[in-house]
Design goal:
about 350 residues, 2 domains, Rossmann fold, nine-stranded mixed β-sheet, about 30% helix, alpha/beta
Length: about 350
């Protein structure tokens, strides 16, 4: 596919953490693409590697993390065409090249707005900081742009609220400020890590409507990390299902919701409440518990919790099979289909 159509191309990403001389692999051979102007939802239970995967791409992990990949290619689009950046080759993840990409090109909305903001700095200064650093404009010009963005994000009375501190904002307003920090440099790709965590349902809907509006009006590409399948149904164009650090299924929204194929994907969808659930009818739960990543053995990571597990599911790594164009499943039930990387 043309690089103009793909904004992010990740192939065989692996992330290992070293602790007390012991290595634990958290992300394993993860591959996915994000099409320009679309939303990719990354879903799975807590601890499945969603956030670590995206922090690996953004190079936000600590010194005890070891990130390697065959390819982490970001394709910036400008008046001269496509500029390719190969993030896997950066020797210093916090060096000038990566810092120049964060903000103007790639940005991240973190899941906890309460801890994402510095309590002793005015919110306007926190939003303007990245803009001043990357563009060199004056504080007066930056303030005007922050006010404009606050109005766009629906923050009331922005002329006064720009000089407030985080504790003077509600949870929903804090999340808008965090989104403003991510948006202020007009990036092409925004990664949203559980952007509605700890917000009530009404505020959740407002935040997601806001993100959708920003995407439609400004052509942004979004990666949405979530375990909320309702948000996925509302926002996503494509869906990446992860379990224990692997992509177990990848496809369009219709592929995943209308034709779920991996046993884990099916189990996730069965555990989602739906309208019309009979009184007294209980939601299904996924049997067993999520294993410790340090104790995993070769084979399918879901084997111990899977009702369809067979004798060949253990002992060797399971490849992904393409069961329809663009619809990939890591399950031996589909070994009559062609294997894909």
């Amino acid at each position: 596919m043309d690089t103009k159509e793909i904004i992010l191309d990740v192939k065989k990403l692996n992330t290992t953490f070293v602790s007390d001389k012991k290595e634990t692999k958290i992300v394993k051979d993860v591959s996915f693409q994000v099409k320009r102007g679309t939303t990719l939802a990354v879903v799975g239970e807590s601890g499945c590697g969603k956030s670590v995967t995206m922090n690996s791409v953004m190079r936000f992990l600590g010194r005890n993390a070891r990130v390697s990949a065959e390819n982490i290619q970001y394709n910036a689009l400008d008046s001269d065409g496509v500029q390719e950046y190969h993030l896997e080759n950066l020797k210093n993840p916090n060096g000038p090249e990566m810092r120049s990409l964060r903000g103007p090109h790639l940005s991240m909305v973190f899941q906890d707005p309460m801890s994402s903001l510095n309590p002793v700095y005015k919110v306007g200064d926190q939003v303007a900081e990245g803009l001043i650093e990357h563009t060199g404009i004056s504080k007066k010009e930056a303030r005007a742009k922050v006010l404009e963005l606050f109005r766009q994000l629906g923050i009331p009375d922005p002329e006064n609220r720009i000089d407030c501190y985080p504790h003077q904002f509600s949870g929903g307003m804090k999340q808008r400020v965090v989104i403003a920090i991510a948006m202020i440099c007009n990036p092409e790709l925004i990664i949203c890590d559980e952007p509605t965590t700890a917000l009530d349902v009404t505020i959740q809907a407002q935040i997601m409507e806001l993100l959708k509006k920003l995407q439609v009006e400004n052509g942004k590409s979004i990666i949405l990390i979530t375990h909320n399948m309702g948000l996925v149904a509302e926002m996503a164009d494509e869906v990446c299902v992860m379990y224990m650090g692997r992509v177990v299924e990848f496809g369009t929204l219709a592929d995943i919701f209308d034709h779920p194929s991996h046993p884990y994907t099916k189990a996730l969808l069965r555990s989602v409440p739906v309208l019309g659930l009979a009184d007294g009818q209980k939601l299904e739960t996924i049997p067993g518990i999520t294993p410790n990543p340090a104790d995993l053995k070769p084979g399918c990571e879901f084997a111990d919790r899977c009702s369809e597990c067979g004798e060949h599911c253990r002992g060797k790594n399971i490849p992904a099979f393409e069961i329809a164009p663009g619809h990939r499943v890591r399950c031996l039930k589909y070994n009559t289909f062609p294997e894909v990387d």
